[in-house]
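As the next step, I selected for study a record pairing a protein sequence with its backbone structure tokens, which the following lines show:
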Amino acid sequence: MNAANDLRDFYRSQFHERESVLPGACIPWVRQLRTRSLEQFLDAGFPSTADEDWKYTDVRTLARRRFAVAPASSAVLPALPAVFEAHEFVFVDGRYAPQHSHPGALPPGLRVTSLAEALAGDAGSIEGWLGHDGVAHHGLLALNAAFLQDGAIVHIRPGVLVEQPIHLVFISTGADDSAVYCRNRILAGAGSQATVVESYIGTGAAATLTNTVTDVVAEAGATLEHYRLQREGEGAAHVGTTRVRQARASRYTSHAVAFGARLARHELYARLEAEGAECVLNGLYAARGRQHSDQHTRIDHLQPRGTSREWYRGVLDDAARAVFTGRVVVHPQAQHSDAQQSNRNLLLSRDAEADSRPQLEIHADDVKCSHGQATGQLDPEQLFYLRSRGLDEPRARGLLVYAFAADVLARMRLVPLRRQLAAELAGRWLPAETMEVLLP
């Protein structure tokens, strides 16, 4: 039996073992979704470098392992630091954990439920979203749908202002070769305003897989600020997908931060489906050791007068590798679109590597679009200047690295979180007494 057939047999067996105990197992349309998705995965398998979208990210190490759905955890979790006041919902190894959550009093017009709870109660309310999931872009997306366990459903009613952030915390405590499959949905009603934070945390060094999908809908005039923080363990693999649909005059802002995992990839697809939609993608990734970090984005301007801004920066040390692929497509009817894209990478080691692929595809003739990328090392003249002012070399290098990354952090409006991320980043290169002076 060859390796590909062995892989298919393993996941087929896993599916038949787990199908009856997964949420929604008795609902016909859920069973159809799972079965259809499993067949898609068995046909496609894991992505390979022969696929242009995965050219620089090799997931053969994932295909060689056999990831089983993580069992319900009985681990004692460390207390989560209260970085900012929020409506907090905690998921442990792919399942909602009310005993660890602190939702507080939700304001009128905000509803947050778990996917498993929705499937056990009013499954018909989510069939239009989940039941019509189309053909997956690649095998890992299909695998998510086949084994989806739980997730958060956030519904913000039209015109509602949610003052405190909604914090969705996903904690992985699993042993080697355990997997978590989560599916989230965020619906921002017309004219609503909210901040949602997704945090992915690992508590150990086990070789685990997190496979997660978040669907976002911003209705007309809605404003949504969406933070995505990936800080999983050093042995983890993380594959996340965010899919965004925007209506007329809506504003969606993404802050995607990736500091953790041995292999991490985040795909972000934003569709500006109506006139005047605005989209901002703000990203920061830092990798060291032999970490591999892949940021893959696509913005589709589908209607006139859409605006998109994309700024991603990466800091790479040791033998780390990063990939940025950013594609902006301006469709024929999207006249007067305004799109800007920039990716910059800072290499702190001769062995670090960055592959940057900004792309513009324009099918309209009255647009304003630009893109650019730069990859380099620390400027020797700037380093010399700081050294000449009395700083030792490690402190001078740390200040320059921090200044490079701070451009992304400065766009984050959630100040306590911004300070925490700044401390984490600066702590890699700066002593504590210097950090206290720098933190915004």
Q: What stands out?
A: Residues 17 and 178 are 15 Å apart (CA to CA).
